[in-house]
TrEMBL record:
Transmembrane segments: 599-620
Domain of life: Eukaryota
Name this protein carries in UniProt: Platelet endothelial cell adhesion molecule-like
Residues annotated as signal peptide: 1-18
Record-level GO BP terms: cell surface receptor signaling pathway; cell-cell adhesion via plasma-membrane adhesion molecules; immune response
Keywords linked to the UniProt accession: Disulfide bond, Membrane, Signal, Transmembrane, Transmembrane helix
Domain spans labelled Ig-like: 18-123, 225-304, 401-494, 504-590
GO molecular function ontology, one term from the record: transmembrane signaling receptor activity
UniProt xrefs under InterPro entries: Ig-like_dom (IPR007110), Ig-like_dom_sf (IPR036179), Ig-like_fold (IPR013783), Ig_Fc_receptor (IPR050488), Ig_sub (IPR003599)
Keyword Signal: yes
One Gene Ontology term, aspect cellular component: external side of plasma membrane
One Pfam family this sequence matches: Ig_2
Species of provenance: Cynoglossus semilaevis (Tongue sole)
Length: 639
C-alpha cells in the first residue's frame, strides 16, 4: 500500500516530462574546435571572405545539443549564434575591406562546457583611392573654401590628412568614409591641394595613395596699407618724427570682415586703429628706427615697413681712468668724452658731462674731467653726456683700488731649522693686493726676490746656515706699489735652530780592568748638539735596548747594580735629537771574580799545598826510619 502512491508519482512524472530521463542518461565531450579563413588568410580588397568554425563534439544520446558559437576579432565579440545543428558555423565578410584585417577566434559553449580555437590572422590588402572635392577653385585672399575628402567603400576608423602645397594643413579622425575641411588662403598665387587617409587597425595602420590634386587660384585684394614718415631725409637725433599708417583702395575691399591697423616699432606696438593711425616720437640713433604698418582683414594680413636712418648728434661717451692702477686714497682722475659730434648741428662745447653717482668724492676740474681720491672699496662710475635733450650713458667703469701690502711676517716653513742643512723661509703679508714682490734680506742685503700672483701661492726661499746665530739675520721685504720707496719690512727671523749631534762617547766606570763581581757598573754616554736628546744603551746580542731615557742635557748614564758574570759583553749607546741620530763606539766589559773568592781559593790552595808537603815529609820520614831499622837489624844479624 505504501509503494503504490510512489509508483503512481513516478509514472505521472515520466508522462509529463518525457525528455528528462533521456537527459539524465546523456553525456558529451567537446573534442576540438578550429577556425579557418576562406578562400585564404591573405586576400585583396573586395574579396568575399568566409570565416568557418568547426567543432568536433561526441555525445551518447540521440537528442541534439544546444550550441552557442561566438566569433571574435581581436578581443571584440563580433558575432554570436545559438544552434542545435552539428554543421560548421559560417561567418561571411562580403566585399572585405582593410578594416576586416585582424586575428579571429571561434568559441563554443555547450551546457556550460567551453572551448576556444587558436587565433587565425586575416589580412586584407589594398585601399581605394581617395577623392577630393572643393566648392571653389578661384578665391580672394582670406576667402573660405570647403574641401571634402572621401575614402570610397572603406569601413572602420579613418584618419584623414589634408595637404596644401605639400604641407599638412589639418588632420581628422572619424568613423566615416568622408570628412570636410575648412580652408582659408592668406597668400596670393596658385596652391595645390590633395588628401590622403589611413585606416587604423591597432597596433597597425594602412595608408592610402594620394587623392586627385586640385589647384586653387588665390587673387590679391587691392586694398593695401600705407606708411608715411616725416621728415623723410637728413634726420638727426632729437628730431620729431610724424608717422601715419593708413589704407589705400579702401573702396575695393571685397571682404565683410572687420579691418584693423597696427603701427609697431620692432616688437613694441605704438598705436592701433581701424582706418588711420597717427603717432609722433623723437628720433634716437641708439634705437632701431624700423617701423611697420600692418593691415588685418579677417585672416589676411598685409604689411609695409620703413627704416629711418638717424644721424648721431654725438657718440656714446667713454669713461677712462688715470692712472690705470690706483691704490686706496690715492689721487685719480676720470675723463668722459664723446669722440664724434655732428658739427653741422651742434658744437663740441654743447655736450655736457656728468658722473653717476653725481660727483661722488670727485670734483670737475674741467669739462669732462673729474679728479679726487680713490675710495677704500670698489666703486662704479658711469659717464652721462647730454645735448639738445639727448642723454647717453657710457659703459660702467668699475674702480677697484688696490690695497697696500701689510708688514710681512717671516717664519721657517717647518718651524725649525737644522744647522748645516737646507731649510725654507716663508714670507707672508696678511693684507695686500696681488701681485706682491717678496725679497729675502740678509742684514738688509737682498738675497732673492719672488712674485706672488694668487692667494694660494707662497713666497718661499731655500737657505742654509752654518752657525745658530745666523738665523736672526734674515728679514723679509714686501712690495706691491712701485710708487712707494719705503717698503714694509718684517722683523728679524726668530726660529729654533737644531744643532746635529756629534758621535757620542761611551765611558765605563770603574776602569775596565777593575770591574768585578758585586760591583756597580756605570755606562756614561755623552754627546754635543741641541737637546732634548734621547739616549739608548745596547748590548750586542740583545734585540731591545737595555735602557732608554730623554734628557735636556747632553749626557746621561746607565747603572748596573750587583755585577755578575752574566753582565759581561759588548756595549754601545745611541743619541737621538730632532736633527739626527748617532752611535758610539763599542766597548767590551769583562766582569772579574770577586776578591773574597780569590782569597778563599788562595787559602784553599795553601791548605792543600801544606797538606801535601806534610804528607811528603811524613812519607819520607817513615821510609827513612824503616831503612834505619832494617840496617840495625842486619847488623845485629851479622853480629
Amino acid at each position: 500500500m505504501v509503494l503504490l502512491p510512489l509508483l503512481t508519482s513516478m509514472l505521472l512524472s515520466s508522462y509529463f516530462h518525457p525528455g528528462s530521463v533521456v537527459d539524465a542518461q546523456r553525456s558529451f565531450t567537446i573534442r576540438n574546435i578550429t577556425l579557418s579563413v576562406e578562400p585564404s588568410a591573405e586576400v585583396p580588397r573586395g574579396t568575399n571572405v568566409t570565416i568557418r568554425c568547426t567543432a568536433v563534439v561526441s555525445s551518447s544520446g540521440q537528442e541534439p545539443l544546444n550550441r552557442k558559437y561566438s566569433i571574435y576579432q581581436g578581443s571584440n565579440n563580433i558575432y554570436t549564434k545559438n544552434t542545435i545543428t552539428s554543421e560548421d558555423l559560417l561567418y561571411l565578410l562580403p566585399d572585405a575591406r582593410v578594416s576586416n584585417t585582424g586575428k579571429y577566434k571561434c568559441a563554443i559553449n555547450i551546457e556550460g562546457k567551453n572551448m576556444q580555437s587558436d587565433a587565425t590572422k586575416l589580412t586584407v590588402t589594398g585601399l581605394s583611392k581617395p577623392t577630393l572635392h572643393l566648392n571653389k577653385g578661384v578665391v580672394s585672399e582670406g576667402e573660405d573654401v570647403t574641401a571634402r575628402c572621401t575614402a570610397p567603400g572603406e569601413t572602420g576608423f579613418i584618419f584623414f590628412i589634408l595637404d596644401v602645397d605639400s604641407k599638412i594643413i589639418e588632420e581628422k579622425l572619424v568613423n566615416s568614409t568622408e570628412v570636410e575641411f575648412k580652408l582659408r588662403f592668406s597668400s596670393v598665387g596658385y596652391h595645390k591641394v590633395h588628401c590622403t587617409y589611413s585606416v587604423l587597425m591597432m597596433p597597425d595602420s594602412f595608408k592610402s595613395e594620394e587623392s586627385n590634386t586640385i589647384t586653387v587660384s588665390v587673387k590679391e585684394m587691392s586694398i593695401t596699407p600705407v606708411l608715411e614718415i616725416y621728415p623723410q631725409s637728413r634726420i638727426y637725433e632729437g628730431d620729431v618724427l610724424s608717422i601715419t599708417c593708413t589704407i589705400r583702395n579702401m573702396a575695393f575691399n571685397p571682404s565683410t570682415a572687420p579691418i584693423y591697423l597696427y603701427l609697431s616699432q620692432g616688437t613694441r606696438l605704438l598705436s592701433s586703429g581701424d582706418t588711420k593711425v597717427n603717432y609722433s616720437t623723437v628720433a634716437l640713433a641708439e634705437d632701431p628706427m624700423d617701423f611697420e604698418c600692418r593691415l588685418e582683414i579677417g585672416t589676411v594680413a598685409k604689411v609695409t615697413t620703413k627704416m629711418v636712418p638717424v644721424t648721431e648728434l654725438f657718440s656714446t661717451p667713454t669713461i677712462t681712468m688715470s692712472p690705470t692702477v690706483v691704490f686706496q686714497r690715492e689721487d685719480m682722475s676720470l675723463t668722459c668724452n664723446s669722440e664724434k659730434v655732428a658739427s653741422e648741428r651742434i658744437n663740441r662745447e654743447n655736450v655736457t658731462y656728468s658722473l653717476e653717482p653725481p660727483n661722488f668724492l670727485l670734483t670737475s676740474t674741467k669739462p669732462g674731467v673729474f679728479s679726487g681720491k680713490t675710495m677704500m672699496y670698489e666703486f662704479n662710475y658711469t659717464c652721462v653726456a647730454q645735448a639738445k635733450g639727448i642723454t647717453k650713458y657710457s659703459a660702467t667703469l668699475s674702480v677697484k683700488p688696490k690695497v697696500l701690502v701689510s708688514i710681512p711676517k717671516i717664519s721657517v716653513v717647518q718651524g725649525r731649522a737644522v744647522l748645516g742643512e737646507p731649510f725654507e723661509i716663508l714670507c707672508h703679508s696678511d693684507i695686500g693686493s696681488y701681485p706682491i714682490n717678496y725679497t729675502l734680506l740678509w742684514d738688509y742685503e737682498p738675497l732673492n726676490t719672488t712674485t706672488v700672483w694668487l692667494p694660494k701661492e707662497q713666497a718661499r726661499f731655500k737657505v742654509t746656515i752654518r752657525r745658530p746665530e745666523e738665523i736672526n739675520k734674515f728679514m723679509c721685504e714686501a712690495k706691491n706699489n712701485l710708487k712707494i720707496t719705503q717698503d714694509p719690512l718684517s722683523k728679524r727671523l726668530n726660529a729654533t735652530v737644531i744643532v746635529p749631534l756629534t758621535e757620542p762617547t761611551l765611558t765605563i766606570l770603574p776602569e775596565l780592568a777593575e770591574v768585578s763581581e758585586g760591583d756597580q757598573l756605570y755606562l756614561i754616554c755623552g754627546t754635543k748638539g741641541s737637546p732634548p736628546v734621547t739616549f739608548k744603551f745596547y748590548r750586542v746580542g740583545d734585540e731591545q735596548p737595555k735602557f732608554t731615557t730623554t734628557s735636556n742635557i747632553n749626557h746621561t748614564h746607565y747603572r748596573v747594580n750587583e755585577l755578575t758574570k752574566g753582565h759581561g759583553g759588548t756595549y754601545y749607546c745611541e743619541a737621538i735629537n730632532q736633527a739626527n741620530n748617532v752611535f758610539s763606539e763599542r766597548v767590551t766589559v769583562e766582569v772579574q771574580m770577586a776578591l773574597w773568592k780569590k782569597a778563599l781559593i788562595g787559602g784553599i790552595c795553601l791548605v792543600v799545598l801544606s797538606l801535601l808537603v806534610l804528607g811528603c815529609v811524613l812519607y819520607f820520614k817513615s821510609k827513612r826510619g824503616k831503612k834505619e831499622a832494617d840496617a840495625e837489624l842486619s847488623d845485629r844479624w851479622r853480629k
